[in-house]
Write a structure and sequence with these properties.
Largest sheet: 13 strands, mixed
Structural class: alpha+beta
Shape: globular
Radius of gyration: 24 Å
Helix content: 10-25%
Distance between the termini: 58 Å
């Protein structure tokens, strides 16, 4: 490096060599997540390494896009349920498409948290320890694989973030319509920021998720964990029955980009969704029988209290029982497979709410 004394000497000596001096250029801060190290204006990939303990280790892939210009830090996660493929593919695409040169701030993308679920095609749970990888935050440093993984994600990914987007999609047994969640905490400043994010995301059905009161141990998702740390957070879902239809993947990619534009991380303006359908309480409709399930509704159907949403038969085709909704509202989700056990979820019904 050229010292100030050398520069001064060159000037006093009347030389022109100063024109050839290369002065150090200020750089943005490096960002490291797991083994991924990204300098300003660079993209890097690596792994969040979760050591073995009472069960096997795991390495969770992470992409860091460190913008050429300063700005906030946005984290996007998917694949807590490893067969919600549309959301996983959406973040893989997003990790390749965002240009570091155009980005202000940093994007941290964790596209697939639950690798064992993905590899073994097991819905909802981590087959290594039988736990839900979106219900166990903050995790434990010495727990099972799920708990150790979430402990690492909480500290290396969530805690350093300014904002969080949690993406999901229709699991193997879930047929759903696209919707997002606006978590309401009671903190007016936090709620205003997350409301602006969910409006910018652009999905026209928005579920008002109550996130007030203490978090429930063993039932705390990443969104609630992030909110409790003061991070504005939204959740979005698109996809059905494990499919990766382009319109579902694109809706999640474009929605995420819209939030980045809203946060001034990407150039361009974004128009918030103008007339969303706000959904309040969600009622789970269960089956009272083991057997084969036949749905009678599709996502976005409007139903009245007492209407049939499906029925079950025995394994010989004889009808066992109708499954009826106890409330009126819109069908958010309906079971997409014939397999049904007593107590299983047949459908979610969302009750229409007034605009908040």
């Amino acid at each position: 490096m050229i010292s100030l004394m050398q520069i001064k000497t060159a000037i006093l000596g009347g030389t022109l060599t100063l024109l050839a001096v290369t002065l150090p250029v200020a750089r943005g801060a490096d960002v490291t997540v797991g083994t991924a190290l990204a300098h300003a204006g660079e993209r890097a990939s690596g792994y969040i390494q979760v050591p073995g303990g009472v069960d096997a280790p795991t390495n969770i892939p992470v992409i860091v896009i460190n913008g050429a210009k300063p700005g906030p830090r946005l984290t996007l996660v998917a694949g807590a349920h490893g067969t919600e493929y549309a959301s996983i593919i959406a973040l893989e695409k997003l990790g390749q498409s965002v240009s570091p040169a155009e980005l202000s701030g940093t994007i941290v993308i964790v596209p697939l948290i639950n690798l064992a679920s993905f590899a073994q095609k097991v819905p909802h749970l981590n087959p290594v320890d039988g736990k839900n990888m979106n219900r166990m935050y903050p995790g434990k440093a010495d727990g099972t694989q799920t708990e150790r993984a979430l402990w690492a994600i909480g500290r290396q990914v969530v805690a350093p973030s300014d904002y969080l987007i949690d993406l999901h999609g229709g699991d193997l047994d879930e047929n759903l319509r696209r919707y997002s969640y606006w978590p309401v905490t009671g903190n007016e400043k936090l709620d205003a920021k997350s409301r602006a994010m969910v409006m910018a995301f652009g999905l026209d059905h928005i579920i008002i998720q109550k996130s007030q009161g203490p978090a429930t141990p063993g039932a705390t998702p990443i969104s609630r964990f992030a909110q409790d740390l003061g991070k504005p957070t939204i959740i979005a879902e698109a996809g059905h029955a494990g499919t990766t239809n382009a319109e579902d993947v694109d809706a999640l990619v474009q929605g995420s980009e819209n939030v980045m534009r809203h946060l001034k991380m990407l150039p361009g303006e974004v128009k918030p969704v103008e007339h969303p359908v706000w959904i309040g309480e969600i009622t789970t409709v269960h089956s009272d029988q083991d057997g084969i399930f036949y749905p009678l509704v599709v996502p976005e159907s409007y139903v009245q209290q007492g209407m049939r949403v499906g029925y079950t038969t025995d394994y010989f085709g004889n009808k066992l029982a109708d499954i009826v909704t106890p409330v009126s509202g819109v069908v958010i989700f309906v079971c997409s497979v014939p397999s049904m056990k007593k107590g299983d979820t047949a459908a979610y019904i969302g009750e229409i709410a007034s605009a908040p």
